Amino acid sequence: MRRAFREIYTAFPDTVHIVYDVIAEDGRVAARISARGTFTGPLFGHPPTGKTVEMTSITIYRFKEGRIVERWSTGPGLLEVLGLGGR
Fold first, then answer.
1. What's phi and psi for 4, nearest 5 deg?
2. What is the pTM of this model?
3. Among 37, 38, 68, 80, which lies 20 to 30 A Cα-Cα from 52?
């Protein structure tokens, strides 16, 4: 995940996140978040388009021994939003 997020932040260096809600219980954390950024660097082998995108999602993380072991998310994926493929 670290590698993927590093590549995403390289591709969208102006990314801004807004966290609306965070709820934690029984080893799970749920977050409702939006992100907006401009595609100015390469992303997973795709050249930048200069397109600004905004995504909103609800993601649930399950933790075990302080590490994320599972992740579930609503909404389209980033590549799908960019029109480069996806789910």
1. -65, -45
2. 0.75
3. 68
Do residues 40 and 11 lie in contact, with contact meaning Cβ atoms separated by under 8 Å?
yes
**DSSP string over 8-74:** HHHH-TT-EEEEEEEEEETTEEEEEEEEEEE--S-BTTBPP---EEEEEEEEEEEEETTEEEEEEE-
User: How many CB atoms within 10 Å of residue 39?
Assistant: 21
Q: Do the beta carbons of residue 86 and residue 77 sit within 8 Å?
A: yes
Which residue, among 48, 36, 56, has the nearest Cα to 7 in the 3D structure? 48
Tens of pLDDT along 15-59?
Answer: 999 999 999 999 999 999 999 999 999 998 999 999 999 999 999
pLDDT grade for 73, boundaries at 50, 70 and 90: very high
